[in-house]
Amino acid sequence: MLSVIFVLLAFQVVQAQKNKPIDRKATRQTKALYHNLRKLAKKQTLFGHQHATEYGHGWMGDFDRSDVKSVTGSHPAIIGIDFSGFSGRPAEAIQTAKERVRKTVIDTYNRGGVITAAWHFSNPISPGGFNWVDSVSKPAVGSIIPGGEAHAQYKEILRGVGEWAHTVKGNDGKLVPIIFRPYHEFDGGWFWWGKPHASREDFITLWQFTVSYLRDSLQVHNFIYAFSPDNKFRTEAQYLERYPGDEWVDMVGVDNYGDMGRNRFAPDTAALKLKIVSDYAQKAGKLAAFTETGLESIPDTTWWTNMLLKTMKTYPVQLTYVLVWRNDMRSPTHFYAPFPGQVSAPNFLKFYRDPYTLFEKDLKKIYRRKFLGIF
């Protein structure tokens, strides 16, 4: 009888935590963002662009500029940033990176936009940067988890992230909520934290420790934690192979370039993977997102409506956002969002005007629980 009672109590605890942030001490603004993203996803999806306001095609550091705004009149609803500069550099360079990213975060919040942070984390125990380089890289995951020889070093790096997270305050004096997406595309081998370089058990330990240390030890309460493998799965079981557990994840996502034109145009396959992610999110009480996608150089003049929008609308999925990758300031070909004169810009305007997509100027009071919706 007692065992039955314990099982029921455990079930009730799990159910009570559904559709809520895993951080019970999350700030009011973070809880409101979580709630409002979930509400909007029932019918619409926020559009995002990595580094959209930091730089773009042929420019850098202009005030209140983005290539997306230059085409549509509005910034993306989601602005992607990166914690890549927060470690693995001289102290002065780290401080400069933190100040630059802080400004982007605060400016976005003050305008009413939403921030998501990736982490291209330089290998803390070997050269090679965040990529896996056969000649120099060492598998670091086992070294930085509890009991590893570089664990203290990892805690120091996380302390730097945590201290920074306590400094990002908007004009209202409130901490800015951030969708934090560490260790993305972990099912591939191109990053040092990838599947070939870390056991399943060590990867899960790394994820759980990272969340616990930031949330419980460093008292960071303005993060929403997003889990995002690449597109290598075909079933829910494959998707969840390295999943750390519902109590450690707020948002489930997928990064998918391969099915979206990089390797093949496979909208049906991409749509099925989005359905797997969205179905799990609804079952587990999580948010879902298309966390990274895009087609480099966008040579397909109808990619936005005939590929991206079609893929997201194939099934009745609930996706909080879709984010395309960055527009390099120097490269003439490395860009994922259009700029004035780019061949897909007219089609992007159709994508922008579709009622399904939301941009920054569409959002209204997304950091308040009494959400007023959109225009």
UniProtKB/TrEMBL annotation:
Compartments reported by the entry: Secreted
Residue positions of the active site: 185, 292
Catalytic activity: Random hydrolysis of (1->4)-beta-D-mannosidic linkages in mannans, galactomannans and glucomannans
Subcellular location, principal: secreted
GO MF annotation, one: mannan endo-1,4-beta-mannosidase activity
Positions marked as site (Plays an important role in maintaining the position of the catalytic nucleophile): 184
GO CC terms of this entry: extracellular region
Positions of substrate binding: 120, 190, 257
Enzyme Commission number, as recorded: 3.2.1.78
Xref: InterPro entries: GH, GH26_dom, Glyco_hydro_26, MANB/E
BP-aspect Gene Ontology terms: substituted mannan metabolic process
Boundaries of every GH26 domain copy: 28-361
Keyword terms, alphabetized: Carbohydrate metabolism, Glycosidase, Hydrolase, Secreted
Family, as annotated: Belongs to the glycosyl hydrolase 26 family.
Record protein name field: Mannan endo-1,4-beta-mannosidase
Native organism: Adhaeribacter radiodurans
Lineage start: Bacteria, Pseudomonadati, Bacteroidota, Cytophagia, Cytophagales
